[in-house]
Structure formats: structure tokens, C-alpha cells
Amino acid sequence: MTLQPVSVGLKFGFLIVLYLFLMWVAWSALRDLRRGSGVVQSDRAPSPDATGMYSAESGFGDAELDGLDPRLLVEHAPGHEPGMAYELGNGAMLGRGDVEIKLDDPFASSQHARIFREGPVFVIEDLGSTNGTYLNDEPLNGPQPLHPGDRIRIGDSEFSFLQ
């Protein structure tokens, strides 16, 4: 007869754990939704059309290379001051290992992503990382061109591309 109170206690314990898990899932989803809306694009950035693509009229001529000063601006990243900027030159590697832009982020791989110049265009590419790289809150699938104001997220680190 003493098993009945234990059985009831286990049932209530299971329900408590289940509700705590559901609350954690909801909290995580809300945190991820809020994270994407916190950064405002620069006024200099070209506005994408409804498809998310940039217009071809903002092309890249050789005259534009003269004033080219590409850099990554830290929005928020563990171990970095917000507003800090990294000059890209001809490109940079991002990650936790021996790279140009070192991330103190447990969600970053040792060589997570790279930014490189392809003619006048800067391109970002994920290097097969475990947790992925996000460009404007979309998972990066293959190399993608960067535009002024684009947001790059690796784990809990977020940067803006400026040109």
C-alpha cells in the first residue's frame, strides 16, 4: 500500500520536469526571435527587394575600389568590445583557432568561416563548421557576397559588414 504515494509523487515529478522543459523551449525560441530584430541596418546599405536580393544597379566598378575600406564591426561578441572594427584588407578567417579574427565563443569552430575578396566583391564562406554561420539571420549555404550593412552571426557573436 505504500507504493501508491510514491507512484503519485513520481507522476507529479515527471509533469514538473515536462513543464520546465516546455518553458525552456519557449524561452529559447523567444530569445532567438528577439536576437534577430535588435540590429538596425546602416543608412548607407542598399535596400534589398522583396526577394532579399540586391539590385544590379549598385554594381561594382573599378572607381569604387579607390574608397574601399572593408571592415567587420562588432555588434556583440564574447571577449570583444561592441563598436570595435576589424580591417579586412583582402580577407580574414574567423574562429577559435589560429585565425585573424579570434572568437571567444564556445559555439565557434577553430576555423569557422572566412571572408575573402573576389575581384571587387567580398564573399563569406562557412568552412564546414558544426553550428553554422548566419548571414542576415539566414543559414549560410555556400559562398555568398557581402553587402554593406549585412549581419554575420557565428554562435553568440554578431558582426556587421561595412564598406
Write the layout of secondary structure elements.
Layout: H1 3-36, E1 71-76, E2 85-87, E3 91-95, E4 101-102, E5 113-118, E6 121-126, E7 134-135, E8 138-139, E9 144-145, E10 151-154, E11 157-162
Shape: elongated
Strand order of the largest sheet: 2-1-11-10-7-8
The fraction of residues assigned to DSSP E strands is: 25-35%
Q: Biggest β-sheet, characterized?
A: 6 strands, antiparallel
Unreliable parts: 37-47, 60-66
Strand count: 11
Q: List the secondary-structure elements in sequence, H or E.
A: HEEEEEEEEEEE
Give Rg in angstroms. 22 Å
The helical percent reads 10-25%
Mean pLDDT level: 80
Our measurement of the CA-to-CA distance between the termini, rounded to an integer number of angstroms, reads: 75 Å
Number of helical stretches of at least 4 residues: 1
Q: Structural class of the helices, strands and pairings? A: alpha+beta
